[in-house]
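Proteins fold reproducibly. Take a sample protein:
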Amino acid sequence: QVQLVESGGGLVQAGDSLRLSCAASGRTFVPYAMGWFRQAPGKEREFVATISWSGTTFHSDSVKGRFTISRDNAKNTVYLQMNSLKPEDTAVYYCAYARGNDYYTRARLYSYWGQGTQVTVSS
């Protein structure tokens, strides 16, 4: 079993920055990818960004150029740096874990999920 705990969410104004963290614990076995997804009220869960064990990244078109995913493997932690936040970024953000050498954009490929952290961006 793997446990994921997100932190860093909060209420900010449009244009501000925020950094989310997700710490993994339990039975983690390398290599593994990590991903960030988000879900806004009344909408489906949406892919945000992913990073492979070796550090290769991929970001969705909606956040590309504004958000950056990174990881610190020694700390079993993944980060999401969010800059130039917009009201449409408001959502619950979830981190996820997937065994494998690659990065993954489909939610069904992730086997463990965090509880989510709320990000609210006011206009």
In short: The first strand starts at residue 2 and ends at 7.
